[in-house]
Design goal:
- There is one protein chain.
- It is elongated, with a radius of gyration of 21 Å.
- With 233 residues, it is α+β, with helices and mostly antiparallel strands.
- A 6-stranded mixed beta sheet has the order 3-4-5-6-7-8. Strands 9-10-11 form a 3-stranded antiparallel beta sheet.
- The protein folds into 2 domains: 78 residues, 2-Layer Sandwich (GMP Synthetase, Chain A, domain 3); 143 residues, Double Stranded RNA Binding Domain.
- The protein contains 4 helices and 11 strands.
């Protein structure tokens, strides 16, 4: 079956040509182009390992496709998903063996489409993978808040107290001995009242991982006190 082709002037461009062009951009992991029956680009989904702003990546995609193929793209049709690699075997700043009950960060993903962003955080506890998702406005600060919220939701989904952990605030610009750190404030709501938890993590590789790690720093301490994890702090 012939592939759909995008028609612009006298040139016809296939979805495969568009995908091949975008795939050559630095840090692009995979790409999928969806053309309408008339040949225009309806959807362009790009998965990248880059930590740059999605709008910058979208501009790179627009420029590359137009320069190489002569095909103009509507930025609203470009969906950018940013994936963080997993960290198997790494402690992520926490002690204890890999098969202990302590929650550990597995990976962080951020998908941005226009003004909408969705954060997905995977946590690991022994052989189990816990997933939390949060969506909202795609502003830079709110993306960090969504990551923290997705982290606590991954924990809440495993507990009977629905919505018992709430991200109150975070600061990703805390200076400590010449280094930058993230501090997250989480409220733990239960029948006995509200408890305020704080967690901190140095920004070592990227700020997304640090936000999730700071959220876990607060949560792991709370769960340890409650007896919900079995290894030492």
């Amino acid at each position: 079956m012939d592939q759909p082709k995008a028609g612009y002037g006298t040139a016809f461009v296939s979805s495969e040509q568009i995908e091949d062009t975008v795939r050559q951009l630095k840090e692009v992991v995979s790409v999928r182009a969806v053309l309408s029956p008339s040949g225009s680009v309806d959807e362009l989904h790009v998965l990248t390992s880059s930590t740059r702003a999605p709008k910058q990546i979208a501009r790179d995609v627009e420029t590359a496709v137009f320069a190489h193929l002569g095909v103009p793209l509507d930025y609203r049709k470009i969906s950018i998903a940013q994936a963080k690699l997993s960290f198997p075997g790494k402690s992520n700043g926490y002690s204890g063996s890999a098969d202990s009950g302590r929650l550990r960060l597995q990976d962080v993903n951020m998908s941005v489409q226009g003004s909408h962003a969705e954060a997905t955080v995977h946590l690991r506890r022994g052989p189990d993978i816990l997933t939390g998702i949060a969506s909202g406005h795609a502003s830079s600060h709110n993306q960090l808040r969504l990551i923290a919220t997705a982290t606590v939701r991954a924990v809440d989904d495993t507990r009977s107290e629905d919505g018992s952990l709430v991200v109150e605030d975070l600061n990703a610009q805390v200076a400590l001995a010449g280094r930058q750190a993230v501090v997250v404030l989480v409220s733990a709501i239960a029948d006995r009242g509200e408890e305020v938890l704080t967690g901190c993590a140095l920004i070592r590789q990227d700020v997304w991982k640090a936000v999730a790690s700071a959220s876990l720093d607060a949560i792991n301490r709370r769960l340890a006190i409650a007896g919900e994890i079995n290894d030492e702090l």
